[in-house]
Fold this protein.
Amino acid sequence: MKYVNPCPVYIINLDCASARMQGMDKQLDNLGVSYQRIAAVRGVDLPANEVEKVYSSELNRQHFRYNLSLGEIGCYMSHRNIWQIMVEQNIEFAVILEDDLVINANFQQLFSEINTLKHYDLIKLADNRSFPAAQKKKITDDFELVNFNTIPNCATGYTLSLNGAKKLLARKVFYRPVDIDMQFCKELNLSVYGLQPYPITESNDFASDIAAFNGGRHGNKTTSFIRNIKYRLALWYLRKTHLSGVL
C-alpha cells in the first residue's frame, strides 16, 4: 500500500516509453512511494510556433556551443511544465525525477528531511560524473549537503523548492539544455546543491530518449571553433569564480 508522501513526486515520462514507466512504478511501489506521472513533451512533435515561444535560437548562438535538438527542447519544456505546476499550485517542495534511473535504498529517507531540504532552491539527487564537492555540510545522520565548483550536468533527479521554481521560470526563453542551464545558476541567483550519498543513480538499461529521437545525438555538435571556445571560456570562468551555493 502506497503512503501519502509529504510532498509531490513527479515522474517525467514520454507516452511511448511505457517500459520505463513500468520500471519506475515497480521501484517506487516497493518503497511505498506515491507519485504523479507527467507526460513528457516529445520535441519532434512540436510545431515551429510553439518552439519559438520558449526557445531562442539567437541567444543559443550567442551563449551555447551548438544548436539544441528538438529532443532537448522537449526535455527542457517537460521540466518547465513541472516548475509551472509548482508555482500555479503554490507547491512548497517537490521531488522531480526522469524515468531512466535506479532508486537507491536511502531514497525514502528524503521524506523525513523535508523540513530541512525545503529551504534550499535545488538539490541534485544524482551525479553521473562524480564531481568533487567544494564544501560539505552534514544536515542529518544520513545525508550531507554539498556545493560545487563544477555542478553535475544531469537533470535525472532533484528536489526543488517553490522559490527555486520561481527563479528557474524567470528565464522566459531558454537556449541551453536544461541540465547545462542549472550549471549557469548564477544568472538566476539560483543555489544548486547535491545530497550525498546520492539517493538515485542513472540507469544504463535504456538508451537516451533524446538521442533516440535525434539520430543518436543530443544536438548538432558540429559548430564553429569560435562559438565553442566562447562557451568553454564562459563555463571555465563560472567554475573558477562561483560556488553553486552557500554552506
Q: What stands out?
A: Residues 53 and 173 are 7 Å apart (CA to CA). The chain has a mean pLDDT of 91. The first strand starts at residue 9 and ends at 13.
